[in-house]
Amino acid sequence: MRGERRLVDAAATEAAGAQLAASLRAGDVVTLSGDLGAGKTSFARGVLAALGLAEEAPSPTFAIVQPYEPPEVRLDVLHIDLYRLDDPAEVEELGLDEARHDAALLVEWPERAGPGYWPDALALHIAIEQDGARRLTWAAPDAWDGRWPR
Ligand SMILES: Nc1ncnc2c1ncn2[C@@H]1O[C@H](COP(=O)(O)OP(=O)(O)OP(=O)(O)O)[C@@H](O)[C@H]1O
Ligand SMILES: [Mg+2]
């Protein structure tokens, strides 16, 4: 199912992430695409805060993979930023297929892994509107029925 929602400010972006957190579970992959500075990390911060993270999540741009696990969050989450990946083949070295068994994956810059790398992902896209607000659009596979949108 496809849909869209306007995010009037950064708080709205984080609130949308918090809504997603309520239905997130191990094995899920959520991809976050959009231009530089669109709000992908803001969305992921909203997810992580709603899962219980007390401090503000750092951007994983340099770490590439930032893991979170209970008790700091309700479930295992890998916050991933593939921006610095030079070659799509490098994504295999991150061990994400294995990690997915017991963690949810939030992936910024998923296109760096190559087209269609996560065909079953909830694919979110954030676009910057002319007035500076953001537009969240999504393509949700059937497995997400009833879980997103919510
Ligand atoms: N709905 C919104 N309206 C206006 N500003 C927003 C909105 N959502 C997020 N922002 C702002 O956009 C800026 C960039 O956000 P963020 O770092 O999350 O982007 P990003 O997509 O992760 O960037 P990068 O491509 O560098 O990883 C921040 O200043 C954030 O507060
Ligand atoms: Mg980011």
TrEMBL record:
Q: Keywords assigned by UniProt?
A: ATP-binding, Cytoplasm, Magnesium, Metal-binding, Nucleotide-binding, tRNA processing
Q: What is its main location?
A: cytoplasm
Question: Which InterPro entries does this UniProt record tie to the protein?
Answer: P-loop_NTPase, T6A_TsaE
Query: One GO CC term of this entry?
Result: cytoplasm
Which Gene Ontology terms cover its molecular function? Answer: ATP binding; metal ion binding
- Read off the Pfam families from this record: TsaE
Keyword Magnesium listed? The answer is: yes
Which ranges of the sequence are coiled-coil?
none
GO terms for biological process? Answer: tRNA threonylcarbamoyladenosine modification
Q: What is this protein called?
A: tRNA threonylcarbamoyladenosine biosynthesis protein TsaE
Species classification? Bacteria, Pseudomonadati, Pseudomonadota, Alphaproteobacteria, Sphingomonadales
